[in-house]
Fold this protein.
Amino acid sequence: MEYANLLAQVNSSTVVAIGLILGLGGAGTAIGFGLLGGRLLEGVARQPELSGKLTGTMFLVAGLLDAVTFVGIGIGMFLLFANPLAAAFKVAAGQ
């Protein structure tokens, strides 16, 4: 019975960690996109002749910013479906 309770604690802690990874990753990306869009508008307002170059650079940085979120999603899915913590706990408990 104690084994089941400890495994449930490991799984619940993992779910909380996944929620934090996805939530904070999404919030960080949203803040980043807001700052990026604001800076683009400021740059185009100052120098309208560079709007094409600034927009291209903005889309490049937006893609990199989105990639960070997708890495967080990948880590979250790994922890959800192939939880290494639970597997190590099962090995240590001998089950």
The chain is about 90% helix and 0% strand. Residues 43 and 49 are 10 Å apart (CA to CA). The helical segments are 2-46, 51-81, 84-93.
